[in-house]
Amino acid sequence: MSLADLRSQLPDYAKDLKLNLDSVLSEAGAPGLNKAQIAMIAMGSAYAARFKPLTEAVAAFAAEHASAEQLTAAKGSAAIMGMNNIYYRFQHLVSHPEYDTMPAKLRMNVIGAYKGEAKNDFELVSLAVSAVNGCGMCIDSHDKVLRDGGVSVQGIQSAVRIASVIHAVAVVLEQADAAG
């Protein structure tokens, strides 16, 4: 099933999502990002949203605009953020200060695997997935790395806009699917 097919399945009450889906997945609707970055962010966000038909449709879209290596990085980012967002959200929200002094003791090698522009791309996906997963500590960290890496605030905002639309589409389609 394609993104266009899924878009057509969105109910009338989600008309804004129909409009926004097309917009955020275009360079004109995602200022500060190139097509490969848009595809990577959409891929990572779809993985984080966990609705298989949307993930498959986004994967087909993404394969047209990003390399296999870039899509592997997007999946790696979604995987590691799935773990880190839980751990660091706990660390941020728990009241006991001793947790701040304890090492995470979690392997995170994939985070250091990318350099230069590939690092920025990985971080954009990580930021988007962290936004979907609601980890403020991770959002702050990725935002800083991105700005220090020369990514514009507009590009960073575009990444989060993509994540928000992909997640909302997943939620609506999943509920419509469940309702039968």
From TrEMBL:
One Pfam family cited in the UniProt record for this chain: CMD
EC class (word): oxidoreductase
InterPro entries: AhpD (IPR004674), AhpD-like (IPR029032), AhpD_core (IPR004675), CMD-like (IPR003779)
Record: active site: C135 (proton donor), C138 (cysteine sulfenic acid (-soh) intermediate)
Recorded catalytic activity of this chain's protein: N(6)-[(R)-dihydrolipoyl]-L-lysyl-[lipoyl-carrier protein] + a hydroperoxide = N(6)-[(R)-lipoyl]-L-lysyl-[lipoyl-carrier protein] + an alcohol + H2O
One MF term in the entry's GO annotations: disulfide oxidoreductase activity
Cysteine pairings via disulfide bonds: C135-C138
Domain Carboxymuconolactone decarboxylase-like intervals: 97-175
HAMAP family given in the database record: AhpD
Entry function: Antioxidant protein with alkyl hydroperoxidase activity. Required for the reduction of the AhpC active site cysteine residues and for the regeneration of the AhpC enzyme activity.
Name of the protein described by the UniProt record: Alkyl hydroperoxide reductase AhpD
Species in which this protein is naturally found: Luteibacter yeojuensis
